[in-house]
C-alpha cells in the first residue's frame, strides 16, 4: 500500500531512495575498522577477548587482542561491504562480508563444552593455515 505522497512522487518521476541501513541514522554509533585489525569475531553477544576459550584461539592464531574486534551482527552490517581481514562467526549463519577467511563455529557455550565443536573449529583453522597462521 503506497501513500498519496508516494503516488504523487511516482507520477512526477521522482525517484525515492531507501536506506540500506536505517539504524545508522537512528542514533546508533557507527563502527569503524581499526587499523591493524586481522580478525573480527562476530557473535550475538560479542565475547570478551579475555575469555579463556577466545584467548586460547587468539594465542593459536598468533594474534594479540589489539588485532581483534568483537562485534554483533548488527554492528558488522555497519562495516564496509567487503572486508580483507579474517572473520570468526560464533553461532552465526548466513552471508558475511569477509573476502578472506571466515571461520564458522558453534556458540561459545557449546564450543567450550563440546570436543567435537572444538575439533571442527581447529580443522577449519588448519585448512586455512597459510592465510591465518604467521609464517616466518
Automatic annotation (TrEMBL):
GO MF, one example: DNA-directed DNA polymerase activity
UniProt record, GO biological process: DNA replication
Keywords: DNA replication, DNA-directed DNA polymerase, Nucleotidyltransferase, Transferase
Top-level taxonomic group: Bacteria
Main function: Part of the beta sliding clamp loading complex, which hydrolyzes ATP to load the beta clamp onto primed DNA to form the DNA replication pre-initiation complex. DNA polymerase III is a complex, multichain enzyme responsible for most of the replicative synthesis in bacteria. This DNA polymerase also exhibits 3' to 5' exonuclease activity.
Protein name according to UniProt: DNA polymerase III subunit psi
Organism, as annotated: Pantoea latae
Amino acid at each position: 500500500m503506497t501513500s498519496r505522497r508516494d503516488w504523487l512522487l511516482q507520477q512526477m518521476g521522482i525517484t525515492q531512495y531507501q536506506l540500506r541501513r536505517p539504524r545508522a541514522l537512528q542514533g546508533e554509533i557507527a563502527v569503524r575498522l581499526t587499523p591493524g585489525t586481522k580478525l573480527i569475531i562476530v557473535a550475538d553477544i560479542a565475547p570478551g577477548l579475555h575469555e579463556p576459550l577466545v584467548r586460547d584461539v587468539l594465542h593459536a592464531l598468533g594474534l594479540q587482542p589489539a588485532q581483534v574486534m568483537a562485534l554483533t551482527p548488527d554492528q558488522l552490517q555497519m562495516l564496509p561491504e567487503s572486508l580483507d581481514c579474517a572473520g570468526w562467526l560464533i553461532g552465526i549463519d548466513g552471508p558475511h562480508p569477509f573476502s578472506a577467511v571466515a571461520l564458522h563455529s558453534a556458540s561459545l557455550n557449546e564450543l567450550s563444552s563440546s570436543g567435537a565443536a572444538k575439533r571442527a573449529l581447529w580443522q577449519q583453522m588448519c585448512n586455512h593455515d597459510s592465510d591465518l597462521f604467521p609464517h616466518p
